[in-house]
Structure formats: C-alpha cells, structure tokens
C-alpha cells in the first residue's frame, strides 16, 4: 500500500463519536504500511485549540476560525505529500465545504453513531455536564451539528467495530486513488 | 544540491530589513535545485497573522503567541521533510530560542542592516508613521528588538547584495549538512 500523493482525511462528528480513536487506528495502519513514506500527521481539534487557537471560544465565529486554521495547516502538509488525519467536531457544513475547497484532496468521514450512544459512552464526562446545563454551546445538546450531505464515508461506530471502520476508510482511499491498492499487510491487520 | 532532511531557516530582523525578499530568493534557488524534492514553503509573518492569528495585536504576549504558532507549523512541515523559510520580525530572543528548541533543525538568520537603512528604504511606509508616533509598538522605534547572540548567519543587507546573501545562507546550510553540497546550477545563479 503506497500513497500516490498527500491528502486529508477529515473526521467530523459529535464529541464522543470516536473520531480520535479512529484517527489513531488509521494512522497506525498507514504508518505500518509506510504509506506516504511514513509521513502521517494527526491534527486533533483539541490539540490545535491549544497550539493555534488559544483564547477562541465556541461561538460559531470562533469555531469557524478554529476549523479554518486546521484547514490551513492540513493543506500545507497535504500539498507536501503528507497524509493528514484531522479529528475535529467541525459542526458547520459550509465551513467544512470551505476546507474541502481549500485543500482539494479532501476525504470527509462522518463518524456518526447515534447521539444516544455518545451520551452513553460520555468518554470525557462532558455530556453529563452539558445535559445539566453546565456547558453552554455544547454540540448536539445546546449547539448545532450539521451532518454532511455527501461525506465520502459515513460510519455508524455503534454498529461497526474499529477494524471494520478503518477498512471502510482505506477502501475509499483506494477507490479514490490515494492508496495504490487495498492490500493491507497482515501484521497491520493484527495491530488494528 | 539535495536536502538530506527537512529544516527551518528562520529569518529574523526589523521591518524593511529584507527578510521577505531574501526568503523568496532563497526559495527560488532551493526550488530550482529540486532541494527536498522541491518541497519548499515560505511562512511569512504577515500571512500567518491573517491565517492563524487574526485578532492578535502587538503586545509582547500577542507577538509571542504569533511566533509560537509559526514555530508549531514550521515544525510540522520540517519533520515531514519540507524546507521551511520563515520570515518574521520575531523580536524576542527567548521566543526564538523556544522555537529553536521545538524545531531542532533550526537555522537562525539575522537580517541586520542598520536601522537607518530600514528607515531610508521604508518599503511599506511604516517607519514614517511610526516616527510620527502614529504606530505604537513599532519594532525598533517604540518596541524592542532583541538581536540574536549567536545566529547561524548574520547579514548586513546594506553591504551585501541579494545573491551574496543567498550564498551565505546556502553555504551555512551545506556546512550544517542540510544540503549535500554547495554546488549551485548556473541557471539558478542567473535567476537569483
């Protein structure tokens, strides 16, 4: 499995939907396969807030600025041959479409378990607070999430396990010509 | 001339010192020589303010945040094999040293014509305003510039022409092992 050129896999979805876990599993797989010469970067929404967007809040304007900054950096990396895995709620459709326009080589993955499943998992304990009204502007509870109309991949991670989810993405990357073929070394399959 | 690995050339100096002109000439040279497989990016301070730091001002804290963001992006690119040319006033020594620490492969170039020469050129018409008191916090006039103690290269661009300045930098890059050798195609010499 070799990459022909850089690209961005843009994982969008609610808090607790499994974006980061999926990004890490996909990165492991691409890295082990030496895709893109091993040039893989994860841009995580929380990390980017720390490094590029300190002081921004959660208004639509601030969320959009944060997403635009992620897109700017992802584009710089992708056009230099890096496989970039973005993991960010990125709730607004128009903002994601602007990122797609800037980046070009853009593969949108909607990580979409039912909201109830995200609430059940509550991996960061945030839904409990949001439902108690302690977090204003919480996506899915008190702030909008606009699902994609035509994401390249949509994954209900309450029904698909991690390996199957990763395989759905690599199959799409192959179909789109970002991977030379869909063959995955068995050693990698074992590690996913 | 081939690059063995990614690196950052960090051009620091006053407004009007010639940082951007130098970055562009160096980029042309590295690009024509297919250094780093042609993977060259310029991160210009003004551009970064637009894309990553909208809303930040010119207090020490805001300048430092802006420089830290440039360093974050430069590091991401350099560790993926890109030659990154940063052009930013970056007036504070400690902040540049922090960037050096983060990035590792860091070549500091102090673009250092005398202040009087920058005022004489006044390429953006800013010194006139700053000297008239119309721009508060203007580096070199009403805000500090802390010169490097030990930049890898220091260039008095009032005494050296553009080609000689570029050659001083490529010679240092060769010496540090970032370029395989110092040979520059004559076609490139002509274009500088």
Structure, described:
Two copies of one chain form a homodimer. With about 190 residues, chain A is an alpha/beta fold. Chain A has a single domain, classed as 3-Layer(aba) Sandwich (Rossmann fold), CATH 3.40.50.300. The first copy, chain A, has helices at about 20-30, 45-50, 60-80, 95-105, 115-120, 125-130, 160-175, 185-190; strands at about 5-10, 40-45, 85, 105-110, 155. In chain A, strands 2-3-1-4-5 form a five-stranded parallel beta sheet, with helices on both faces. At the A-B interface, α3 of A face α3 of B.
Give a short summary of the structure.
The first copy, chain A, has 192 residues and is α/β, with parallel strands linked by helices.
Record the SSE blueprint.
The structure is a homodimer of 192-residue chains.
Chain A: E1 7-12, H1 19-32, E2 40-44, H2 45-52, H3 60-78, E3 83-87, H4 93-103, E4 106-111, H5 115-121, H6 126-131, E5 153-155, H7 162-175, H8 186-191
Parallel strand pairs in A: 1-3, 1-4, 2-3, 4-5
Helix pairs in contact in A: 1-7, 2-3, 3-4
List keywords for this structure.
homodimer; alpha/beta; Rossmann fold; 192 residues; five-stranded parallel beta sheet; disordered C terminus
